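thought: fold this chain, then report.
action: predict
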Amino acid sequence: MSVKDHRKTLLKSLILIFICAALVSAPACSSSGSKFSVTYTDLFDTVTEFTAYCSSVSKFNEVSDALQAELLRLHRLFDIYNEYDGITNLAYLNRTCGDSPQKAGKEIIELIDLGLIYCEKTDGKMNIFAGAVTSVWHKYRQSGSGIPTDEELKEAAKHIFAQSVKLDNGTVYFTDKDLKIDVGATAKGYASQIASQMIKSMGVNDFALNIGGNVVVSGQKPDGLWKIGVQDPGGDGLYTKVKVSDISVVTSGDYQRCYEYNGKKYHHIIDLITLYPAENYSSVTVICKDAAAADALSTALFLVSVEEGEALLKQYDAEALWIKSDGTPVRTAGFSAYE
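observation:
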């Protein structure tokens, strides 16, 4: 990610976190403890905020330190750009799995397996194995100038097929040496699910974890449900807010990880039919009990029709708000119930 792109992403995330922090404000103490918050800026190339009600500051520090360590572990594990000593991560697997099967950890195997499921359910439109294409766009987005040629994109598109990925007894192998995995559409949601389970295991049940717009909430605030803001994709304010508990809220938008060239905006969610950024929607927000599914669905729904999206949502007992490129909103009936 370029410095310019990174700053834009951080700014958008900080705005969202500021909005959410304002919405979740509550009296400092309650029957569930005192309110504490911490912000991390070194995880998943975005801003992470953790707010919890704990019995003491020492308890919060214990949990927040463990949370940061766990998220850092997962950040390194799912990093597709950098390798780390002693870690078999996705960057390493992308470099080596085309040569021979490589042993991978439980989290990576599960994340790849989820990717295979989502790819099948969306007829290949939501495809974590399309890293050959997304990496071309990433290169241009880093530079902030120019767009890929059709020839570059068509050549990359020859190497995006899930059938080339073989999982066998904890190993990963690519039959296509040029295939690359890109888990940008699933990693933060999957990580937030793992992290929220860890937080609960440490005895904290009333909290909100926001990893760059991937929000997981547990329990409640002293004054009721958590209130999560949905950003207006056309500005810096709120489009709406939802009142939730024990659930995940994830938004994907064309204002995230984008750049302009010759007056046109190019964002990071790529339509694998056109090989260009998807243009039907400005944002999609998903509410779902499963944080990993919520993250994947918010991207998948960006790439399919509303009707196809509604069919997907039913499979996961999830709800959604689409904001079309012309600003027109489309809600599932269940989404409206949260507003």
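thought: worth noting. DSSP finds ten helices and 18 strands in the chain.
final: tokens above.
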